[in-house]
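Practice problem 4.
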């Protein structure tokens, strides 16, 4: 096949919309390694098998040929930076991510939409790639939308255009990002100088919501997990947009003196620093009770809820 037909083929194959994964393992020196791959697909349910194709020319090809296990990290919509990082040559790929080892010892990256921990089932050389077939030993999905990939570009399949444009527009108007931190049926609030309470807030600007939330929570000395968009509230006259995320925190984190957890049935509704917060908290309580969270899009009085499933396997 000549160069131009190869290029045509790339474009034709690029019409197939995929997600993006990072395939990880531990090398013979116990060092975590991984690469970005969109050639992931499911193969069989019984036994539970998946596959991913790795270029034989890749720097990590010899490591994966020797590996006895690997993990597939299905990236979430905010993890474009991670995808690029794990496709870059010679980068210290794990420097930028939080990860932990699962049952096979393969690294699982925090904030993925889902992960699958696999033992190596079979390796098949196919042309210039090796097909790695993994048998799934453990897996989990999070309530996060996946990152998409189409014609050589990232894409989001997460929210309707209307919501995405509202999210985009907040960069040009006054906006604020509130964080609902749920710990053991309690929500975290920060006492303001006037004695009223607000939820933690991320600073405006910066590198996307995930890193802004992480930065805000690190300032409080708290590590949060499972960050999920909860609402996009437009203020009157379209001058202001408030975003809220919900997330969880591990027990036992020490808190700064201004931070305080309130039980769900005793939230400081009458002492809130911001009027839009009451609406957000009321919905949080309702949806938490129902066990099904969605994403509210609208203003303080009127809007609709985008429903997404939230369940772990
Ligand atoms: C979105 C995306 C998908 C990719 N999919 C694959 C893939 O399925 N298989 C593969 O071998 N490389 C794939 N790559 C390229 C590898 O991630 C990249 O070439 C590799 O990590 C380079 O590492 P090396 O320095 O180890 O050769 C993909 C890259 C990107 C950005």
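Answer key:
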């Amino acid at each position: 096949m000549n160069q131009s037909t190869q290029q045509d083929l790339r474009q034709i194959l690029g019409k197939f919309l995929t997600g993006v994964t990072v395939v990880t393992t531990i090398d013979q020196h116990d060092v975590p390694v991984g690469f970005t791959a969109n050639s992931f697909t499911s193969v069989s349910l019984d036994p539970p098998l998946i596959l991913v194709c790795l270029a034989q020319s890749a720097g990590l090809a010899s490591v994966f040929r020797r590996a006895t296990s690997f993990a597939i990290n299905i990236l979430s919509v905010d993890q474009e930076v991670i995808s690029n990082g794990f496709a870059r040559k010679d980068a210290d790929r794990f420097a930028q991510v939080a990860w932990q080892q699962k049952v096979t010892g393969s690294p699982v990256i925090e904030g993925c939409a889902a992960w699958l921990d696999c033992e190596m089932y079979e390796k098949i050389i196919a042309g210039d790639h090796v097909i790695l077939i993994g048998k799934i030993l453990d897996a989990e999905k999070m309530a996060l939308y996946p990152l998409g990939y189409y014609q050589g570009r990232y894409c989001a399949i997460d929210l309707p255009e209307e919501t995405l444009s509202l999210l985009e527009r907040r960069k040009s108007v006054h906006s604020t990002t509130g964080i609902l931190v749920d710990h053991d049926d309690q929500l975290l609030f920060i006492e303001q100088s006037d004695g009223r309470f607000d939820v933690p807030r991320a600073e405006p600007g910066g590198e996307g919501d995930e890193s802004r939330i992480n930065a805000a929570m690190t300032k409080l000395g708290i590590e949060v997990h499972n960050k999920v968009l909860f609402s996009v509230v437009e203020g009157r006259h379209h001058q202001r947009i408030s975003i809220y995320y919900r997330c969880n925190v591990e027990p036992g984190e020490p808190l700064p003196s201004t931070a305080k957890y309130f039980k769900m049935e005793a939230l400081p509704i009458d002492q809130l620093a911001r009027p839009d917060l009451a609406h957000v908290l009321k919905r949080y309580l309702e949806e938490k009770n129902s066990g099904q969270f969605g994403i509210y899009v609208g203003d303080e009085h009127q809007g609709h809820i985008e429903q997404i499933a939230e369940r772990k396997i």
